[in-house]
Amino acid sequence: xxxxxxxxxxxxxxxxxxxxxxxxxxxxxxxxxxxxxxxxxxxxxxxxxxxxxxxxxxxxxxxxxxxxxxxxxxxxxxxxxxxxxxxxxxxxxxxxxxxxxxxxxxxxxxxxxxxxxxxxxxxxxxxxxxxxxxxxxxxxxxxxxxxxxxxxxxxxxxxxxxxxxxxxxxxxxxxxxxxxxxxxxxxxxxxxxxxxxxxxxxxxxxxxxxxxxx
Length: 214
Prior knowledge:
CATH architecture: 3-Layer(aba) Sandwich
Mean pLDDT: 93
Distance between the termini: 30 Å
Number of strands: 10
CATH topology: Rossmann fold
Helix content: 40-55%
CATH class: Alpha Beta
Largest sheet: 6 strands, mixed
Strand order of the largest sheet: 7-6-5-8-9-10
Order of helices and strands: HEEEEHEHEEEHEHEHH
Shape: globular
Strand content: 15-25%
């Protein structure tokens, strides 16, 4: 769920402005999963814009404090949320760790990098939520290490039904700065897309695995 409407619209505006999110219904992108998609989202681009990364840092920290209180630790999900997670941890003045998709195959074979004590309250920071699988894999690793995962925040959420169901199954609250619905609304208002393209973009979100752009 989004934090509030104004933040959702402003975040969408900023992401579109710097082309961190691109909408191309007529020229679909190919995802690593093999899906064809009219949208491409790379929130790492925000790190190159000081004002925008500050806005994201401050508002993610605000969400955390209002929703969960001061956590003991911030955990970023590798690799996309490491940098923004560090910024949020710095804003809150708390330690930072990050979680790999799986344990390293060499050295100490860590999946969690940084110091984490059993029983600490952890908020997970993500850049992007699609199915939620990789995000919740990180939550699972943290819980197995003894952490109390009290919530997750992210910059953007596609709003897939599968993600909503996955988070419900984990009994974990997800709060985002913006989401797909607010992105489309902002894109239409600012002429990033035309009204005739809106249906295509909505159809994709309903069944992204089967959508082929036709």
